[in-house]
Write a structure and sequence with these properties.
Blueprint: E1 6-11, E2 14-21, E3 26-30, E4 42-43, H1 46-65, E5 83-88
Antiparallel strand pairs: 1-2, 1-5, 2-3, 3-4
Length: 91
């Protein structure tokens, strides 16, 4: 069985983005504006990208609850258990 070279990352049923294998890292491509800060950033593994997406959401939840963000958010504090990574092959 060959290993996957791209992974989708979903948080609370919404697509955060995909990571695509490159030479020695994975590049994250955001699928939602909420994850724009991660767009085209390299990660050592899909798991590192997943953690970064989770961290982005933790910051958004804390900013929203503190009244710092004026943007609407689809997040709740329960999202931690609802992060999913799907594997697929390109080509």
């Amino acid at each position: 069985m060959s290993s996957a070279n791209a992974y989708t990352i979903e948080v609370q049923g919404n697509s955060a983005g995909i990571v695509v294998a490159s030479a020695n890292h994975f590049i994250f491509y955001a699928a939602d504006w909420a994850f724009g800060s991660l767009d085209r950033k390299p990660f050592r593994s899909p798991a590192h990208a997943e953690r970064a997406a989770r961290d982005v959401l933790l910051r958004r939840v804390s900013e929203t609850s503190a009244g710092k963000s004026s943007r609407p958010t689809f997040l709740t504090a329960r999202f931690k258990s609802q992060v999913r990574v799907n594997r697929f092959r390109l080509g």
